[in-house]
Design a protein that fits this description.
single chain, elongated, mainly alpha
Length: about 325
């Protein structure tokens, strides 16, 4: 009888262990290789972001302001020809299109930055820096778009063919009540134009529109007060004539002293009313004239102060955002 050799039970186990070890080693090598590859890709992406895409972003923004200025100048020149708003928009369409092209290019450059910083988490330093830069840059583009889009409405507010040209009604009115009526009528189309301007994407226009809306309300209030005071004054003149007759009648009848004292008290009360009416009139009239006088300055300040300050803010913030992003990139590349 032939005896079969006994197979060792340990041999398959050792083989399986050996295979597992080899697979694990190979897997770890693959993981290391993939990790190194991904890291290299990210470093290349960050280098591209810093050296090319951020540079393109800065250059694109540098073309916005000249395009804005060119459009504003072209439109205003056309409007002063003179020309209607529609004609001025037609005659400045070239500059308007060039501005929009500059904005579109800037938005493309921003999108390249936002999508080109690699596979890092959004919460890491670079992701946060990109998000902050994107918010500031987008706010700048929206602001400049609003400045251009709403300029025809703003520039023409007080022209003869626009909504607020009828606010200055003083020379057209025969009396203060007529002035108040004309002002109320003129305020309707003006408020419609102002409400449109409140929808602008440019905060300087919006703040101006809100201020102008409030100024119109103040003018209406002061116009009503002065008109009422003028009417009261006319009534006081009538009452004064009546009291003169009362005194003459009392004197003719040799009226008792008590009647004279009563008339004197009534005249004293009337004089108090006249004094209060004059005080209210003077206050309202002064505020009304100041409101009309300050209106041109309110308009001029939009560009001379508010828009200039707005642009200065963006010119300060955006370069800082760019530098913060560059520093974050340098920090990761140095690791």
């Amino acid at each position: 009888m032939t005896i079969e050799p006994v197979r060792s039970k340990r041999r398959p186990v050792l083989i399986a262990i050996s295979i597992a070890v080899v697979v694990a080693v190979v897997a770890s090598v693959v993981v290391i290789a993939l990790t190194n590859f991904a890291g290299q890709q990210r470093r290349e992406s960050l280098a591209l972001l810093k050296d090319e895409r951020l540079t393109a972003l800065v250059e694109a923004r540098g073309k916005i302001q000249p395009a804005v200025n060119a459009y504003l100048a072209a439109y205003k020149k056309a409007r002063n020809a003179p020309a209607s708003r529609e004609e001025a928009e037609k005659n400045s369409v070239k500059e308007r299109d060039e501005f929009q092209q500059a904005v579109n290019s800037a938005r493309t450059a921003l999108n390249d930055v936002q999508t080109g910083y690699g596979a890092g988490e959004e919460a890491d330093g670079i992701g946060v820096a990109v998000a902050q830069l994107g918010d500031s840059y987008q706010a700048y583009l929206d602001s400049m778009e609003g400045l251009v889009e709403s300029y025809p409405l703003f520039e023409g507010l007080f022209r003869e063919d626009a909504g607020c040209s009828g606010l200055f009604v003083g020379s057209k009115a025969a009396n203060l009540r007529e002035r108040q009526t004309l002002l109320t009528q003129a305020a309707v189309p003006c408020r419609e134009a102002v409400n449109q301007l409140k929808q602008s994407k440019n905060v300087s226009y919006v703040e101006f529109a809100r201020t102008l809306d409030n100024e119109i309300a103040q003018l209406e209030s002061h116009a009503e007060t002065t008109a009422k005071s003028e009417e009261n004054y006319n009534e006081f003149v009538r009452l004064k004539d009546e009291y003169v007759k009362k005194v003459d009648d009392a004197t003719a009848r040799n009226a008792p002293e008590a009647e004279y004292l009563k008339i004197a008290d009534e005249l004293k009360a009337l004089n108090t009313r006249i004094k209060n009416n004059r005080s209210e009139f003077d206050f309202a009239a002064k505020r009304y004239l100041n409101g009309v006088k300050d209106m041109p300055t309110l308009v001029e300040d939009v560009f001379s102060k508010n828009v200039s300050a707005q642009i200065k803010h963006h010119d300060t913030v955006i370069p800082v955002r760019v530098q913060v992003l560059k520093d974050a990139i340098d920090a990761e590349l140095a690791e």
